[in-house]
Amino acid sequence: MHFSPEEENPNLPLSKFESMLRTNKVEFFDSEEFEEIILHYLDQGKATLAKRALKLALEQHPGSTGLQLVHAEILIYDDKVDQADLILNKLLAVEPFNDEIYIQKANIYSKKDQHDKAIEQLQVAAQYTEDPADVYSLMGMEYLFLDELEEAKRCFKICLEEDLEDQTALYNIVYCYEFLNQVEDAILFLESYINQNPYSEIAWHQQGRLLYDLKKYEEALTAFDFAYMIDEFFTGALVEKGKCLEKLKRFDEAIACYLDTLELEDASSYVLLRLGKCYEKTSNKAKAIEFYSKTVHEDPLLDKGWVAITDFYLRQEDYKKALYFINKALAIDNENLQYWKRFARIHYLLENWEDAVYGFEKSITYGETHVESWLLLVDTLIALQENEKVTQVLLDAVEVFPKQTDILARLSGWMFWNHQTEKGIYYLVELLQEETEALAIFEEMFPEVYTSEVVQNTIIQFFQNKLMN
Hints:
77% of the residues lie in helices and 0% in strands.
């Protein structure tokens, strides 16, 4: 039985109990009424009231097994598992076939991260329960904690056999399939389930999502259509449908789809961003900017929004506007790698060399892993004649990208340029071992060095050795 907070009938247990609290007049309740009252307060998150009800309940019904179980449940919730275990052991001696006792003992083991022992208790509970779905659902979760996904899947399938509408079990089964990389099997399972329950929008949605991951966009689109037809307020299916339409390059239809979601619920930054990208694909620049602007207004912390609007202006070669937006983004989060990469690139394109260097250095500090930023930093430092910095950045770069020919070509040429001949030869040989065609980069960047006697002799010697071997 569930109580509504609006119920005011004085004959109802909850109303009667709350009236008693206001008047301090002690009333009598049977043990089942007390259980309902306590569980109601627990469901509402009102632990203090639940404990007050429990205290009075145990005074009136000290021998009630149901109330003792509720007491144990509250103690487990409060992490007083040893006290709870004492109560459960006493109850077990009296009622060895009570499934709820084993369930609560399983909760204790689970709290202690002893999930295998929790499963043992649940297996006993399953022998005595009248509601196997609840027990197997708990068992499935324990197997998930142990990463035993096949066993977890088996348990959740039992739940679904007991109740075909058990959406939590359905989600968990699909999760297990995905975790085990059994996507095709998951699709077959969902097909079988849909044959039994064709009006399950969740099953259609999950099937569509899996088909989308397999790049079967037409089939996924059909699945999302069914999910949305079953539940016209299912915005998740509508958004996924829009994503499929984008993949199929049906951008006008995707726009219509995303706009429909805005009619169903408040605008989400993700949908606004997708609209901006779709409008840009259809060359509707004004609408693209409108929705990119709405995206960053709706969620200023969403870096994809700031990146999208900045990249839009970069593609338009409007570098000043791109810089304006990336500066706004950095004012919100100045440790974001994606922002610093764009800050550096924009200043590089604007030939603001020192700001570009600052941006590239920041992006490297925050974990840049693409070689292009390192190369642009090196080239900018060379243009600024920051010789010491060039050497250090190149040495750092070759540690991060030991076989990257663009780095090796610059490092070798730079060492020769700075009269560090032995190091120049070392890195030139490293370059030749990786890719002889990369000599073109060396020649382009250091033409005078390339034609020098020492460089040419090193190249000739390398090829002679190669022929001899």
